[in-house]
Amino acid sequence: MMKAGEIARHELIGRLLEVTKARNKSIIGLKGRVINETKNSFTLFVDKKGKKTILKNHLIEVKVNGVVIGAGKVFGRPEDRIKVK
After folding, report:
1. What CA–CA distance (Å, rounded) separates 2 from 20?
2. How confident is the model at residue 2 (pLDDT cuts 50, 70, 90)?
3. Phi, psi dihedral angles at 26 (to 5 degrees)
4. What is the C-alpha separation between 69 and 37, in angstroms, rounded?
5. I need a surface site. Which of 1, 13, 22, 58 has the fewest CB within 10 A?
6. Cβ atoms within 10 A of the Cβ of 10, count?
7. Per-residue confidence at 85, pLDDT binned at 50, 70, 90?
8. How far, in Å, CA of 42 to CA of 46, rounded?
9. Under DSSP, is residue 81 helix (H, G, I), strand (E, B) or coil?
10. Could you give the strand order of the β-sheet that contains 41-46, starting from the edge strand earlier in sequence?
């Protein structure tokens, strides 16, 4: 299994993401597959709700494929995040 730092540097599209802590209480517990990612948001495919877009600045902590990571590690554009060591 990958460590938190390794997951943050990889592509997140196609991975299962669950919101564990957030400033917006209505998205806590939201779970779905990442279908798009921009600098400021994730678009998730949630089973019965269809597509749901969540802003990255509302997140505090997320679980990606079972590994909990701080939201600060997923901020920014995906292509820039991959370059960070």
Report:
1. 18
2. low
3. -75, -15
4. 17
5. 1
6. 14
7. low
8. 12
9. helix
10. 50-55, 41-46, 31-37, 16-22, 59-64, 67-70
Instruction: Output the six-digit token pair for 64.
Output: 């990606």
d(CA 29, CA 70): 15
Q: How many domains does the chain have?
A: 1
User: Which domain range does residue 70 map to?
Assistant: 4-83
Q: How much is the average pLDDT of 46-75?
A: 86
21 falls in which pLDDT band (50, 70, 90)?
very high
Token pair 């089973």 in the structure block, residue: 47
The two tokens of residue 10 are 């990889």
Tokens linked to 48? 């019965």
Residue 43 sits in a domain whose CATH number is 2.30.30.210
State the residue for tokens 């209505």: 26
